[in-house]
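cron nightly-structures :: item 1 of 1
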Amino acid sequence: MQGSDGDVIEEELQALYACYPDVPVTVQKLTTYGDVHVIRVPISPRYVDDHESFVKMTLELRVLPDYPSAAVEVVVGEFKGLDGRAENAIETRMREEAIHMKGEMVLGHLIETGFDLMDEYNRPQSTCVFCLEPVTSTIDVVKLPCYHCFHRSCFTAWYVWKQKAIRNRVEELKREHNMNQSMIDKAMEDEGIHASEALPSEYIFRCPCCRVQCNPTSVSMHMDDASYDDGPIAASPKDGSVSTLPKSVRELVYKEQARFSEILRLQEKHNCLNSCSRS
């Protein structure tokens, strides 16, 4: 970018760095298409702790050589915690804002709009995979690092069962290898069993939704009163929301809940995660 246009974008970039010192704003210059600046900004809700942040996204602003005469191209991606409808609404709002502000120095405004939208949409927007009820409250909810959310009671029961299953398997390995620690360690490594360094009595687990590995430290605040003597877990509604649905939809939900209850029963029986695919 040359001349005064180059000065405009450089000045605005310096303003962004000053306004967002704690936000890792990255800038890439693409010379292939005539010095296009690509600005990427991670956007998440402001003024809340991490465990109270249920959504996030990455905002990409593509600044063309004749900016600000040309509208900034907006690409929104890497969504976490948002459903498809919310993702579409946010992307549409951001693009409309860029077009509306064409001709003005708009980078800071677009970033602020992104933060405002994350504040607006900051709430769980998923269905609990255990009971198939919507996760609508920010209270008594567990959010994993991958941003999947569950009712606290549902997740706690599953987590207790999962940790017990892993512990039982470790004890089996100890007996199989006559307490030979090196052989036990290798067997655990082969089976993907890893103790948490921060919480040695707990084991790394995978998200029930996406299978991403999670450290027990990410959910320790929810486990303070968890009982490891609990019996098998079962899917059950968390509130009366299903009863308000149309009969045809309600019957489908109950059918899915029954299917998940059977899956969870088999998990308890076999100490493993069974396939949840439809037959």
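cron nightly-structures :: done
The chain has six helices and eight strands.
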